[in-house]
Amino acid sequence: MKDIIRIENLCRDFVVGSETVHALRGVSFSIQPGEFVTIMGTSGSGKSTLLNVLGCLDIPTSGEYYLDGMPVREMGKNDRASYRNLKIGFIFQSYNLLPKTTALENVELPLLYNPSVSKRVRREKALSALKAVGLENRVNHRSNQMSGGQQQRVAIARAMVNDPVILLADEATGNLDTRTSYEILALFQRLHAEGRTIIFVTHNPEIAEFSSRNILLRDGRVVEDKINSRIGSARQVLESLPKESN
């Protein structure tokens, strides 16, 4: 099976004043289609730098990064941006929705950059993505008319609408309360069960209980990479939580 992601001896250095900071130090791993991988680490571990490289927002100082078989490091900035839009669906902690725009219009946004997709097809794809995250009744609601959990569902729908090869989540439950966090984790687990490849970057060790594999970074190096043999059910945890009272 072809790797969705393969990185080899990845290094990323930053010059700060007269010093060189080694943010990533020879990181190597591969991710297969259909995996749900958490990448964990505390502040300063290199996880944010790795996120930027995996998301084609930055290029390594040395080493190789292959995304769906293509060598990203060799691409120019514009080619990398186009490839990123086709291959990666981003989900952020702060949702990054356009505030005065409907859920449908937010989800349609990535498709606006694809001239081969007509207005009708764009709408159909956006409606389908919103239905997949349970928001078919909120398509015309604006961001300020939705809860945090609903906004994050819109963000997930937007990430899926291009049918990317990976969903790349950056602390995607970081702004949510406990119940809503488990609702979103349950949604990620359902998408994973349907065959989506998910990379979830987080500092929260509890998230790793619900993924199929965990990669731990420390001081710019991979110090642990293990398969989760006992994957927890976010849906079961959610059902065990006390019911909210109005």
List low-confidence stretches.
none
What's the total number of strands? 10
Rg over CA atoms: 18 Å
Question: What share of residues are in beta strands?
Answer: 25-35%
What composes the largest sheet?
A: 6 strands, mixed
What is the arithmetic mean of pLDDT? 92
Strand order of the largest sheet: 6-7-8-3-9-10
How much helix is in the residues? 25-40%
Number of helices: 7
Given the C-alpha coordinates, what overall shape results? globular
Structural class based on helices, strands and sheet pairing:
alpha/beta
Separation of the first and last Cα atoms: 50 Å
Q: What is the string of helix and strand elements?
A: EEEHEEHEHHHEHEEEH
Describe this protein's structure.
With 246 residues, this protein is α/β, with parallel strands linked by helices. Helices cover 30% and strands 27% of the residues. It contains seven helices and ten strands. The chain has helices at 47-54, 77-87, 103-108, 119-132, 148-160, 178-193, 234-240, and strands at residues 5-16, 19-31, 36-40, 62-67, 70-71, 88-92, 166-170, 198-202, 213-218, 221-227. A six-stranded mixed β-sheet has the order 6-7-8-3-9-10, sandwiched between helices. Strands 2-1-4-5 form a four-stranded antiparallel β-sheet, covered by helices on one side. Strand 4 and strand 5 (70-71) form a beta hairpin. It is globular, with a radius of gyration of 18 Å. The termini are far apart. The mean pLDDT is 92.
